[in-house]
Design goal:
GO molecular function: G protein activity; GTP binding
Strand content: 15-25%
Order of helices and strands: EHEEHEHEHEHEEHEEEE
CATH topology of one domain: Rossmann fold
Largest sheet: 6 strands, mixed
Shape: globular
Strand order of the largest sheet: 2-3-1-4-5-6
Family: Belongs to the small GTPase superfamily. Ras family.
Structural class: alpha/beta
Keywords: GTP-binding, Hydrolase, Nucleotide-binding
Helix content: 25-40%
EC number: 3.6.5.2
Bound molecules: guanosine-5'-triphosphate
Protein name: Ras-like protein family member 12
CATH architecture of one domain: 3-Layer(aba) Sandwich
Number of helices: 6
Distance between the termini: 29 Å
């Protein structure tokens, strides 16, 4: 589908290697990000999670008969987007989650979509996003109608689904696989369009002027300097390394992320 989030960005691998897709799950606390992630990975609904933990999981998937190495970052922002670059510069696609029984979480999801649109504008890249109204099993306590969810998704050019982490696994799996398809479409477009580039040394680091207006003052964006672009190494030649992400504004323990050597974390 067409995305409003600008131009595509890096990822993918050689013909026979599994497609590499990084997926970040965003949303306000309590929306059900961890429950959906765990449901997708284990087919189980587990009702309580430590809200302070942020983890990245790997899963070998087959989507449309194609092997996919999927990494899922279950983010744990506090009440608003924070230290956003850890996922903005990492993910190929985003699942933005709210809970259908919480107006507040719906408003939070709107902030995340605005953040993604802003980041796309700043970087001139594309970021497929899917909007998910979770806790469909709680529909009798709805504070957000399906039409409102669809309208918000329409405003940002996203796919929209209502799901439940405690109902059927197949529906949750379908949504994650749709995110992979969206990411794959962008990656294919990108590989047809031009070689992949990454900032070598001098990223121009500035505060995006719109962030304050969107209440996203804690998020800064790194815009790539055109004078310091370098072709990204082929994924097949990259080694797997373990790195720690910056936890400057978080009280949580640093998560361990497995990233491809040659990628730079801004
Ligand atoms: N009924 C119902 N409860 C859910 C569903 N998904 C999550 N929950 C519950 O909602 C609460 C919050 O779920 P989490 O998965 O921890 O939410 P989160 O978005 O990861 O929240 P943080 O970790 O605080 O960022 C937990 O008590 C879950 O059991 C769902 O689909 N239906």
């Amino acid at each position: 589908m067409a995305s409003v989030f600008g131009k595509p960005r890096a990822g993918g691998g050689p013909q026979n290697a599994p497609l590499e897709v990084n997926l970040a799950i965003l949303g306000r606390r309590g929306a059900g990000k961890s429950a959906l992630t765990v449901k997708f990975l284990t087919r189980r609904f587990i009702s309580e999670y430590d809200p302070n933990l942020e983890d990245t999981y790997s899963s070998e998937e087959t989507v449309d008969h194609q092997p996919v190495h999927l990494r899922v970052m279950d983010t744990a922002d506090l009440d608003t987007p924070r230290n956003c670059e850890r996922y903005l510069n990492w993910a190929h696609a985003f699942l933005v989650v709210y809970s259908v029984d919480s107006r507040q979480s719906f408003e939070g999801s709107s902030s995340y979509l605005e953040l993604l649109a802003l980041h796309a504008k700043e970087t001139q890249r594309s970021f497929p996003a899917l909007l998910l109204g979770n806790k469909l099993d709680m529909a009798q306590y709805r504070q957000v109608t399906q039409a409102e969810g669809a309208a918000l998704a329409g405003r940002f050019g996203c796919l929209f689904f209502e799901v439940s982490a405690c109902l059927d696994f197949e529906h949750v799996q379908h949504v994650f696989h749709e995110a992979v398809r969206e990411a794959r479409r962008e990656l294919e477009k990108n590989s047809l369009a031009r070689p992949l580039f990454i900032s070598e040394e001098r990223a121009v680091h500035h505060q995006a002027p719109l962030t304050a207006r969107h209440g996203l003052a804690s998020c800064t964006f790194n815009t790539l300097s055109t004078t310091s672009l370098k072709e990204m190494p082929a994924v097949a030649q990259a080694k797997l390394v373990t790195v720690k992400s910056s936890r400057a504004q978080s009280k949580r323990k640093a998560p361990t992320l497995t990233l491809l050597k040659g990628f730079k974390i801004f």
